[in-house]
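ok, trying the design again with the full structure, not the truncated one.
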């Protein structure tokens, strides 16, 4: 079945896919034993997330610019943004997002060990004090839907008001996307890095 997208939805999807992909990925990804609940659309050349959401052009048109802003237009430094996205992906068990953003995090200067340590959390590895609180903020937003007073005060000593807002909306965006990915069963694109197997889920 070919899916016909509006020009705006197609443009939004292309921009978001471009922002997500720091390298070239084939359109067809790996398949789970059960398969996705909504198969990726045929006739759409993109990553599996975009191919899946292409079944809903009005949503793509509305969501694409926001997702693109979070990835490429927000006030957060690239490394900070990728740290909180990875932490959110891990906490929400969204391996698809982990795979894409492990790649993006390395492009932003993170090492393989640092990417792995994001899964463990704020007490793993030689994080700076600010990075520990950044990871803590993502965890607090996931578990309590709010940043604690202490964490807020520590981050606000460096971040502007706009950056604090962007931090919250970044975690919120990827928690929402994680819900969609896991509920629909979007499969990993070929070549993406899966979750580290030696770190227990919690």
């Amino acid at each position: 079945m070919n899916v016909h997208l509006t020009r705006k939805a197609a443009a939004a999807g292309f921009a978001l896919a471009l922002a997500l992909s720091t390298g070239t990925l084939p359109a067809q990804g790996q398949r789970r034993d059960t398969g996705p609940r909504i198969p990726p659309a045929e006739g759409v050349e993109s990553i599996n997330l975009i191919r899946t959401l292409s079944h809903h052009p009005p949503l793509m048109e509305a969501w694409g610019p926001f997702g693109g802003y979070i990835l490429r237009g927000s006030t957060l430094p690239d490394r900070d943004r990728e740290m909180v996205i990875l932490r959110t992906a891990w906490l929400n068990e969204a391996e698809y997002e982990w795979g894409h953003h492990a790649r993006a995090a390395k492009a932003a200067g993170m090492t393989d060990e640092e990417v792995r340590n994001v899964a463990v959390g704020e007490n793993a590895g030689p994080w700076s004090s600010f990075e520990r609180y950044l990871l803590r903020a993502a965890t607090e937003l996931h578990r309590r839907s709010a940043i604690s007073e202490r964490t807020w005060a520590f981050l606000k000593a460096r971040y502007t008001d706009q950056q604090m807002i962007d931090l919250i909306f970044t975690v919120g965006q990827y928690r929402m996307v994680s819900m969609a990915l896991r509920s629909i069963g979007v499969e990993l694109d070929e070549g993406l890095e899966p979750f580290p197997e030696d770190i227990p889920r919690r």
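Keeping the full-length input from now on. The longest helix spans residues 161-184.
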